[in-house]
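Consider the following input, taken from an annotated entry for EamA domain-containing protein (Salicibibacter cibi).
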Amino acid sequence: MVVVSVLLMIGGLLIINGIYAYQSKHIDAHFLSTLWYYVKIIPLLLSAILMIGYGVKFLTSSSNHLTFALIVSKGLEILVSVVIGYIFFKEIPTWRTGVGIGIILTGFWVVKGK
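Applying the prediction step yields:
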């Protein structure tokens, strides 16, 4: 169940971060252009929200710890953001990104070790 929950969260986070990255790179900043873009992708947003929600729910039921599930979700979000940043903008992670991910991994260890 843990693998399914992590895959659901990764899938939903990839969709949401991909939507925002595509918007910032390809969609005109005018209100009506942005509104029309979001109207067209409502099904994607809904599916991504459901995937993340069920991923957190399944991980919470597997670990009996909501805080841990939410921290895992945020950690995955940062990793997905790094990947999406590279795919859309060719941003190379710096040493600060590595330090941030290290802090998150330490947080996993502290929370799970409780």
